[in-house]
Amino acid sequence: xxxxxxxxxxxxxxxxxxxxxxxxxxxxxxxxxxxxxxxxxxxxxxxxxxxxxxxxxxxxxxxxxxxxxxxxxxxxxxxxxxxxxxxxxxxxxxxxxxxxxxxxxxxxxxxxxxxxxxxxxxxxxxxxxxxxxxxxxxxxx
Length: 141
What we know:
By secondary structure, the protein is of the alpha+beta class. Helices cover 33% and strands 29% of the residues.
C-alpha cells in the first residue's frame, strides 16, 4: 500500500482545455457538497492559481489539486489502485475523448523519471503500470 502523489497531465504541446469551472462542474456532479477551493495565488510564495478538491471513489476520500499552468491534476497520498480509479474517472469524465493522459509521481519527479502515458487498459493493468513506475524510482528499498 505505497502512497505518493500522482500527477496527471496532457502530453507535451497538447491541452485538455482544463478550466476550474469545468472541473468543478464535473466534481459537483459526483458530489454536490464536496470540498472545492480555488486559490488565486497572490498570498503565497508560488505565483499563479490552483484548485484544491476532495473526491470520493469507492468509499475512499482523496485530496486533489489542479493547475491551469502547467496544466494538470494531481491526487495526494494515494495508492496505485486509488490513482488508477481516479485516472479512469479523469479520462472518462474530464479529459476530452481521444486525448492521452500522461502520469508521473512525486517519487518519479524526484528521481527525474520522464512522464509516461497512462495505459489504455483496465484498472488493474493501470495500477500495475503505476506500481512498475514506483519500482523504477528506486525508492522501495
